[in-house]
Amino acid sequence: PSLRTPRPSEAIFGILRDLGMPGGRWLPLPHALQVLGAKGFTRKQVEEALEEYESLNVIQVNPGRTKITFV
User: Fold this and answer.
1) pLDDT tens digit string along 50-71?
2) Closest by alpha carbon to 52, among 5, 6, 8, 21?
3) Structure pTM?
């Protein structure tokens, strides 16, 4: 059986979830961008993933774009 390759936004969300601070409720956005960039994701892919998961009410990004909170 072949494993399906996740869409970039799914892969990004999985990484964000894994990066969540102790308790898993939030993480600093600059740290997330650094880790995701190191894994080869572009800033555009990350922004699109953040928008997608915000629209699904799974995460919230604060107005200053410094913190991601898991809903």
Assistant:
1) 999 999 999 999 999 999 999 9
2) 8
3) 0.86
- Is residue 26 within a helix (H) or strand (E), and if so which, with residue range? strand 26-28
Tell me how long the chain is. 71
CA 28/CA 61 separation, integer angstroms = 10
Q: Where are the domains of the chain?
A: 8-70
| 8-70 fold | Arc Repressor Mutant, subunit A (1.10.10)
Helix (H, G, I), strand (E, B) or coil at 66: coil
Q: What are phi and psi for residue 67, nearest 5 degrees? A: -145, 140
The token duo for 47 is: 């922004």
Region label for 57, one of left (φ > 0), alpha (ψ between -120 and 50) or beta (otherwise):
left
